[in-house]
Design goal:
The protein contains ten helices and 13 strands. The chain has 378 residues and is α+β, with helices and mostly antiparallel strands. The chain folds into three domains: 189 residues, Ribonuclease H-like superfamily/Ribonuclease H (Nucleotidyltransferase, domain 5, 2-Layer Sandwich); 60 residues; 50 residues, no CATH class. The strands form four sheets. Strands 1, 6, 7, 8, 9 and 10 form a six-stranded mixed sheet that branches. Strands 11-12-13 form a three-stranded antiparallel sheet, with no helix packed on it. It is flat and about 85 Å long.
């Protein structure tokens, strides 16, 4: 499909935008947790079974017969099946290691899915990521991932895009001329370093990008949520800092020292309150790649290039999820979910061919007919 789009002239190779959409899959977040969580869940279900069995025996001894007895039997059978399911999973699986060393939550039903936060709450599912070309919003690379965060997905998406164009017979690295933009969900020091060292013209926004933009300074959502000297609350500007003596004067006129003087509004509830002054980067340390990316994206050119991201990639998700109706993955396992995601992306690209390929063909024919007429006239 990518080859057809390329032959139809629908891929510009000037700007690519990468982003992802999180959607639930065919599993429940109730069955998520660590091995410790599942061990506690098994104990809880076994206690419930013992309690129901005891009540059942007491009712039998008393000669009781009611619909409640049948309901208890059904509940006991359900709990036993669930306990067996969790025990079988515990006997074959270990905790998934997280980036910080702490275990990530697994899932008994679909262990390749992930528990992730969205604007509509916490879901158990996958994130469908796409790399979209700017000319006609053609998806040039796509993949579904069972990852709660998108930090680790930028490099695989960029490399996948490079391999896709190489498969089309591209002799020159397409990323040497094209720019790539991504939102703050992909911003890490490692990703910024990768873009700079790879020679890719990348525009990677950070979480404070909007706050530094002078065009958004008057926007209410970017203002400080704390008002100065109101209801006993203070801002750092209310403190007078002396960097030489390493002290500051609080609004009450008292000296606070770096070794931890207390200035507490509620000492019985708050053991420590702090005021922090940022005096600049430590002398002698090299500039981080994140700082370089911030300087680049804060330029007028950088803000313009990044502003193109939203109209490039977001309409793709609107088409796939809204028009095509993919609001949740109906399969389990990364391989099947990824296949479903690729099929929907392919249908999106087919729509682009149907709408724009004829226009480009007519333009090519007009240029060819014009050249032929000029040749005949000459």
């Amino acid at each position: 499909m990518l080859l057809v789009c390329d032959e139809a002239g629908l891929i510009g190779r000037e700007m690519f935008a990468v982003d992802g959409v999180k959607m639930p899959s065919n599993t429940s977040k109730t069955w998520s947790g660590t091995r410790e969580d599942f061990g506690k869940k098994v104990q809880k279900m076994e206690r419930a079974v013992r309690h129901l069995v005891r009540r059942h025996r007491e009712a039998d001894a008393a000669g009781e017969s009611s619909p409640l007895q049948a309901a208890r039997e059904k509940q006991i059978a359900t709990l036993k099946r669930a306990t067996k399911k969790v025990k079988a999973w515990l006997s074959k699986n270990e905790d998934k290691p997280g980036a910080t060393g702490r275990p990530r939550k697994s899932n008994v039903t679909d262990n390749e899915s992930a528990k992730m936060k969205t604007s509509k709450g916490v879901i158990q599912g996958y994130v469908g990521v796409t790399m979209v070309d700017a000319r006609h919003q053609v998806v040039v690379h796509a993949e579904a991932w069972g990852e709660a965060q998108e930090h680790a997905l930028l490099v695989p998406m960029v490399e996948g895009t490079r391999r896709g164009f190489e498969a089309l017979g591209e002799k020159v690295d397409v990323l040497k001329k094209a720019a790539i933009c991504a939102d703050s969900g992909f911003h890490t020091e490692a990703n910024a370093k990768y873009l700079f060292e790879s020679g890719i013209d990348g525009y990677l926004a950070d979480h404070l990008f909007r706050k530094r933009d002078p065009r958004f300074q008057r926007a209410a959502r970017h203002r400080s949520s704390r008002e100065p000297s109101k209801a006993g609350q203070f801002r750092p500007n209310d403190f007078i800092h002396d960097p030489e003596s390493k002290t500051c004067i609080c609004p009450a006129g008292q000296f606070l020292y770096q070794n931890g003087s207390r200035c507490l509004r509620h000492p019985q509830r708050t053991p420590v309150r702090q005021v922090v002054f940022f005096t600049g980067r430590t002398q002698g340390l090299a500039e981080t790649y994140s700082a370089k990316m911030k300087r680049k994206i804060d330029t007028e050119q950088g803000r313009y290039e990044y502003s193109r991201r939203l109209p490039i990639v977001e309409p793709v998700f609107g088409n796939i999820c809204g028009t095509r109706g993919l609001r949740r993955f109906s399969l389990r396992g990364k391989r099947k979910v990824n296949t479903q995601w690729l099929l929907y992306c392919m249908v999106h690209n087919i729509g682009k061919v149907h709408r724009y390929a004829g226009t480009h063909a007519r333009r090519r024919r007009k240029r060819y007919d014009g050249r032929s007429q000029m040749h005949q006239t000459t």
